[in-house]
From TrEMBL:
This is Transmembrane protein. It comes from the Bacteria. Keywords: Membrane, Transmembrane, Transmembrane helix. The chain crosses the membrane at residues 9-27, 39-59.
Length: 64
């Protein structure tokens, strides 16, 4: 399913941005765009994760 693939790639992007954030903090005071860069993938991960969580319940509800 395409939503699972998107979720997997978003998790990779989120992990990379968090690692980059820690590296930047180790080098000194990072700029705000580095600090807030993990947030967009995190929000998208939340929406795709909630969709995949609700999907089995919606299928039960539709089947009756």
């Amino acid at each position: 399913m395409w939503i699972r693939q998107i979720h997997r790639w978003l998790s990779i992007a989120f992990t990379v941005t968090v690692v980059a954030n820690f590296i930047a903090m180790g080098l000194g005071e990072p700029s705000p765009w580095v600090v807030y860069s993990p947030l967009p993938p995190l929000f998208l991960l939340m929406f795709t994760g909630l969709y995949m969580f609700v999907l089995p319940y919606a299928a039960k509800w539709r089947s009756g």
